[in-house]
Structure formats: structure tokens, C-alpha cells
Design brief:
The complex is a heterodimer of chains A (310) and B (401). Chain A is an all-alpha fold and 310 residues long. Chain A has two domains: 60 residues; 211 residues, MetI-like (MetI-like fold), CATH 1.10.3720. In chain A, 73% of the residues lie in helices and 0% in strands. Chain A contains 16 helices and no strands. In chain B, a hairpin with a 2-residue loop joins strand 4 and strand 5. The two termini of chain B are 32 Å apart. The chains are: A mainly alpha (310), B alpha+beta (401). Chains A and B meet through helix 11 and helix 12 of A and strand 6, helix 2 and helix 4 of B.
């Protein structure tokens, strides 16, 4: 997120300078312009490809390890597969798919991640709209409180919430894990979306109001479509955060409600680990975030607002 | 379609700023009223109060038979064209125009019929499936108009709808707005700071200054009989020349003394402006429009002549704008200060300066005046305007005002 906003900030802070340069006839150049034009350079591309490949090595290693027997694992490195392709076997995956533990925990992860993401996006967007565009008493103070909550670490909530969930009788349930994720995801979600929504031209909302829209209609038909880039990126980050979470799951989920991170951890032991379960399990748990990212990435494309005003 | 009536409408912000003060306007059904004034005069605030986007602090607002002070914008049955157009960027032209109708749950065929008809009226048929960002400024402006037209509202509200267009397009769209309004006969309230737009579009024009209505009248009346210095200076381009002068009796006629020069003025002026009798032999503000002055050498008027030197001559083809100065004190009141501030003059000289007052005359191009020439300026004394030098109020007579 910082990566996407930083260049924009840089260009706006330098806008006076840019205007001066424009006045002198020089074209406007932002930081993004330089980065993007450098990408066309063959040398830069080669460098980036090398970096990407290096970053991929552990993942490839994990994939290959998951396709070898645990005996091969203890006897030789995964790279020997390039000389002896016969090592490749799908037995680990077969075993995993037959063992309920991993499949159930993967399903638990879905049951935790999806509601946590959907709720954060829905509640966050509605609250952000109110903070941005509806005048109510104490709005600014409340918003400051919400922003302040961003800095509260999850660890602070573990004990009180465990007690609270116990009182509510949901300790150990998936509901408890979801509630915790929603509570700690909301402050940042509201902050991010509110700052995006406030950039929507006021005239657009007023036009919708004149056209006969009630707040809810304006929210659904104007604000949500225009806020889509911000909402999509928020959803991705929230989803990945919850999907990869271990701490909250360990604190609140009972064993039968354990997500995949929890289940994989059970397989690690003091000396070595059940690599034939961990490797394919970890790989399976990686696939979903990747799919989500590639499915949503086109929404990162900005410029949706171009042409609305002026 | 309905009349719009403002009675004592005012806007006071939370910090005590008074944006609009006791505004009374009766806009007849089908009338085109233009609200005009310098920036910050409260015209946009007034429009937004009528729209329902701004709360009304005082007074009542009626649209048709309903008092709508407490009615939310969506239920006031008025449509607004925004200065920025405010098109929904994620919707194509068709959906932009249909948006208001969809929210009002009209049936599909009716929506389609109305959108197509509006598109035909505005020449947008080819662009119905384009997004706003793929349109030119003029086309976006048309879409904004279309969105208002399809609603078939009780009134159109337009907030400087042409100010984002270039000069040529603005003239074209101005004519188009006038045509559409004439065809549809919908009550229209149009806000602008451009006095040309105000004069050409309005059935009546309301001039505002610092939240206070100065005068409401048809354009020609505003031009011929401005109520005060502010209206006189605001309407007309180039602006009316204002100088201090003294009227004195000369038999049946009058003599107007402007500094070290004087010109005869027919006694008819006293019949038109009976109240002027009370201002004889003391300084008043005299207004002379540039178009009421002519090069004496080509004018039939040989009596009322002012002598000066042409400081600057601007040839517009159809006219010559001749700048010259007279050795008379300037007129300085609240009104003239406001006018000067509006055109961005940094400093308003107080009282007389050694150079006197700068004037502009509009000469026929047959005049061969050049910069630096000594000029004789013939003044059409029948069209002279007279104002109280202190209050700036136009001097007419009790019978008229």
C-alpha cells in the first residue's frame, strides 16, 4: 500500500516545482514516469527477472519437496530432482487428501478468512462513507479515535478477548476468530477507505442526491463503484493477513476449528518434522492467496476517476 | 414546472458569516432568471439553498405550492447542472442520463424513450455508449444538460455551467441553453459571474453583491436604468466610466462641470430625473458608458465635447477602444471598491490623483485616432447616468423609484 501511495505523494508535494517547470515548457515528469520508463530498459528487465527468480527459489524448493518422499528428503537435497526426475511422486498429496486433518483445516481457513474479509470490507466501507461524507456530531473526534486504534497491537487484545469470548460462550468457535479479525481489521480499513472516499468529488455525490438518491443508494451506486480500487486492495490485504494468521487462531480456535496454519504447526516436532505433510500442506495453503491476488490485481489499475469532472 | 419564490431567504454559517441576506425573488413559471455578481456575492449559495444542498437559515422557499425549506434535495423535483458537470465516471452517457430516472423507478421503456429523446435534442446519439472520460468538454456539458432535461423537473438550476468551456464553445452552448430552455419552458435559475451570459440568457437578471440583492430587472432595464453604482459598473463591457461632476443651472438647461472642463446638458435630464434638482451645485457621481462617447470629428454632436489625449487605442475591428484621462476626481464608494476587487485591481486609489480619472470610449473605426493624439470626445448627454456620490444610489425621481 505504501508502495502505491508514495509516488503519488512525491508528485503532489513537488507540484509547485512542476508547475514552474511546465511554465518553462518542460513536460511534467513524476516519479512514476521515471520508474515506468526505466522498465523498458533491457538491462533493468534482466535484473528484475534475476531478482524474481531468486525470490522464487524457496517456493520451487517447497513444491519439489512436496513431490518427493520423506525418505528422499532426509537423504538428498530437492535440487537432485533435476538429475533424477524419477523421484517425483504424488503420494504425499494423495495421503494429504485422504487425511481429514489437512483438508478440514484448509476448509476452516476458508471459513475464517472469507467472512473476516467480507465483514471488514462491508462495515469498513459503510463507516468510511459516513466519516467522509455524512455530517454528524463528534465525527472528527470519533475518526481520530479510530485512527488511533490502528496502532493497538493484536497481542493487547488476546487476554481480554479470550475472557470476553468465554463469557459469550463462543471461545474456540470460528465465530470468535472471525470477530477478533474483524475488530482488529476495521480501524485500518476505515482509515484507508475514508481517505479514498474523501477524494471523490463532492459534486458527484450532490448530483446523485439531486437525482433522487438516498444515502444508501449513493453509497451503492456511486461510492462503491468509484471506491473499487481501494476496496479491492483492502480486501486482498485483509484476506492475506487472515489467511496466513497463526497467532489469533492459536489463541482462540479449538483444535477442531483449527485453520491450516494451526494444523501444520501440529506437525512440526522438536527434532525434524513430518515433511511429507508440511510441504504439500504449506503449498496448498499458498495457492489460494496467489489465485486471489491474480484475480484481483486488475483492480489495482487506477484512473477510474478520469473524466468525471472538468 | 412551477414558480420558485424566495421570501426573506438568508444563509448564516456556523461561524456567523452571512452569505445571503434577506433575499426576495419571485421567479415565474417558465422564466429564465440569471443570478449574477462577483465571486463571493452569495449567488451560488442562494442556488444551493434552492437545490436543497445547503440548509436555509432564514426565510421561506416555495417551489410551486410547496414550502420546501425542510424537503430534502431528492424530493424537491429540481435538477441541477454543476459547474464541474459531475458526471458519474463509471457509467456511460446513456446510464448517466438515465441515472435519475432509474432511481425514480420509471419503467424501462419510458426511461429509454426519454434518454433517446434527450440525446436527440442535444446531439449525443452517437456517444450514448461512451464513458465520460472519452468525451470532449462540450460533450460532457451536453451530458450534464441531458441529465437535467430527462428528469422533466419543476425547475433547472445551473451553476456556472459554461465556465469550463473555451470561449468559442461557450458562445455556442450559450445559444443552445437558451434554445432548450425556450423549447421546454422550464423555470430556470442560472448562476454566472459573466455579465454577457447574464444579459444574453436571462428574461430577468438579478445582480447580487455581498449577499444582498441589488436589482432584479430585464437585461435592457438593468443596462438603461441601473439602480446603483454597483449594477452600473457591473453590467456593460467595457464598464461604465464613473467620474465626479457637478451639475449647475444654465437657464433652462444644465451645465455639467467635470474638473476643468464643462459640457452643456439639455434640461430634459431634470424631467427624467426630478430628484436631481436636489443635487445641483454639489458633487455627484456621473456615469458615461463607453458607447455613449464618440470621436467629435465624425460625430454630429458638436456641443458636448471633452478634450483630452488618447493614452491607448485598442482596435477591435468593429470598434476602437480609446483610453484617455480627465482631470477630475475619481468616484470611490463601497461599490466601486467591490468592482475593482472583482476585476483584480490591486489598489483602489482613494480620492483624486494627480492624473485624474481614466476613461474608455468606444469610437467608430472610421475615427483615425492614434495613441498620443489630442482627441475631442463627443458625449451623448441624453444617456448620462447620475448617482449619489456618497451612497451610490441612482438619482431618479420619487415618481420612478
Amino acid at each position: 500500500m505504501t508502495a502505491t501511495t508514495a509516488p503519488a505523494d512525491a508528485s503532489s508535494s513537488g507540484s509547485q516545482e512542476q508547475q514552474a517547470r511546465q511554465a518553462m515548457g518542460a513536460p511534467k515528469r513524476s516519479a512514476i514516469y521515471y520508474v515506468v520508463s526505466a522498465l523498458g530498459n533491457g538491462l533493468v528487465q534482466a535484473f528484475l527477472i534475476i531478482v524474481a527468480l531468486l525470490w522464487l527459489v524457496p517456493t520451487v524448493g517447497l513444491l519439489i519437496t512436496s513431490l518427493r518422499t520423506s525418505q528422499d528428503y532426509s537423504e538428498s537435497g530437492w535440487w537432485t530432482v533435476f538429475t533424477e526426475p524419477a523421484q517425483i511422486t504424488f503420494r504425499n498429496y494423495q495421503n494429504i487428501l485422504e487425511s481429514d486433518r489437512i483438508i478440514d483445516s484448509l476448509w476452516n481457513t476458508v471459513l475464517i478468512s472469507v467472512p473476516s474479509t467480507v465483514l471488514v470490507v462491508l462495515i469498513g466501507a459503510a463507516a468510511a462513507y459516513a466519516f467522509a461524507w455524512i455530517d454528524f456530531p463528534g465525527r472528527d473526534w470519533l475518526f481520530i479515535v479510530v485512527v488511533g486504534l490502528i496502532v493497538v497491537p493484536v497481542q493487547v487484545g488476546l487476554l481480554p478477548d479470550a475472557w470476553l469470548f468465554g463469557k459469550m460462550g463462543i471461545y474456540g468457535d470460528i465465530t470468535a476468530v472471525v470477530l477478533f479479525h474483524v475488530a482488529f481489521g476495521l480501524p485500518f480499513a476505515i482509515f484507508l477507505l475514508r481517505n479514498f472516499f474523501i477524494g471523490i468529488p463532492r459534486d458527484l455525490l450532490e448530483a446523485a442526491r439531486m437525482d433522487g438518491g438516498r444515502e444508501l443508494t449513493i453509497f451503492r451506486k456511486v461510492v462503491l463503484p468509484l471506491g473499487w480500487p481501494a476496496i479491492a486492495s483492502l480486501a486482498i490485504f485483509q484476506f492475506l493477513w487472515v489467511w496466513n494468521d497463526l497467532l489469533v487462531a492459536l489463541s482462540f480456535a479449538s483444535s477442531e476449528n483449527a485453520p491450516i496454519t494451526y494444523a501444520l504447526r501440529e506437525q512440526t516436532r522438536s527434532f525434524g518434522a513430518n515433511i511429507d505433510i508440511i510441504a504439500p500442506g504449506a503449498f496448498l495453503s499458498m495457492i489460494v492467496p496467489l489465485v486471489v491476488f491474480f484475480a484481483f490485481q486488475r483492480y489495482f489499475v487506477q484512473g477510474v476517476l478520469a473524466g468525471s469532472v472538468k | 414546472m412551477a414558480e420558485v419564490v424566495l421570501e426573506g431567504v438568508g444563509k448564516v454559517y456556523a461561524d456567523g458569516t452571512r452569505a445571503v441576506n434577506n433575499l426576495n425573488l419571485h421567479i415565474a413559471d417558465g422564466e429564465f432568471l440569471v443570478l449574477v455578481g462577483p465571486s463571493g456575492c452569495g449567488k451560488t449559495t442562494a442556488l444551493r439553498m434552492i437545490a436543497g444542498l445547503e440548509e436555509i437559515s432564514e426565510g421561506t422557499l416555495r417551489i410551486g405550492d410547496r414550502v420546501v425549506n425542510q424537503v430534502p434535495a431528492r424530493d424537491r423535483d429540481v435538477a441541477m447542472v454543476f459547474q464541474s458537470y459531475a458526471l458519474y465516471p463509471h457509467l456511460d452517457v446513456y446510464e448517466n442520463i438515465a441515472f435519475g430516472l432509474r432511481l425514480r423507478k420509471l419503467n424501462k421503456d419510458e426511461i429509454d424513450r426519454r434518454v433517446k429523446q434527450a440525446a436527440r435534442t442535444l446531439g449525443l446519439e452517437e456517444y450514448l455508449h461512451r464513458k465520460p472520460r472519452a468525451l470532449s468538454g462540450g460533450q460532457r456539458q451536453r451530458v450534464a444538460m441531458g441529465r437535467a432535461i430527462v428528469r422533466e423537473p419543476a425547475a433547472f438550476l445551473m451553476d456556472e455551467p459554461l465556465s469550463n468551456l473555451d470561449a468559442k464553445l461557450r458562445v455556442q452552448m450559450r445559444a443552445e441553453i437558451a434554445r432548450i430552455q425556450r423549447d421546454l419552458q422550464v423555470t430556470t435559475i442560472y448562476v454566472t459571474h459573466d455579465q454577457t451570459e447574464a444579459m444574453t440568457l436571462g428574461d430577468r437578471v438579478a445582480v447580487m453583491r455581498k449577499g444582498v440583492l441589488q436589482q432584479v430587472a430585464p437585461p435592457q432595464v438593468l443596462y438603461d436604468r441601473p439602480a446603483n453604482l454597483f449594477v452600473a459598473g457591473f453590467i456593460g463591457s467595457p464598464a461604465m466610466n464613473l467620474v465626479q461632476g457637478v451639475f449647475s443651472r444654465n437657464g433652462d438647461d444644465l451645465t455639467l462641470t467635470l474638473g476643468d472642463q464643462s459640457i452643456p446638458v439639455p434640461g430634459k435630464l431634470l424631467e427624467e430625473r426630478p430628484a436631481l434638482r436636489g443635487y445641483l451645485d454639489r458633487p455627484v457621481a456621473v456615469g458615461i458608458r463607453p458607447e455613449d462617447m464618440e470621436d467629435a470629428s465624425i460625430s454630429s454632436n458638436k456641443s458636448a465635447i471633452l478634450q483630452s489625449t488618447a493614452d491607448l487605442v485598442e482596435a477591435l475591428g468593429s470598434d476602437l477602444l480609446v483610453h484617455f484621462s480627465l482631470n477630475v476626481p475619481q468616484v470611490v464608494t463601497e461599490d466601486t471598491r467591490e468592482l475593482a476587487a472583482d476585476i483584480g485591481a490591486d489598489e483602489v486609489p482613494s480620492g483624486s490623483t494627480s492624473r485624474g480619472t481614466d476613461l474608455v470610449a468606444r469610437f467608430n473605426p472610421r475615427s483615425r485616432v492614434r495613441e498620443g493624439d489630442t482627441i475631442s470626445v463627443a458625449v451623448d448627454t441624453e444617456r448620462i447616468h447620475v448617482f449619489d456620490a456618497e451612497t451610490g444610489v441612482s438619482i431618479w425621481g420619487d415618481s420612478d423609484r
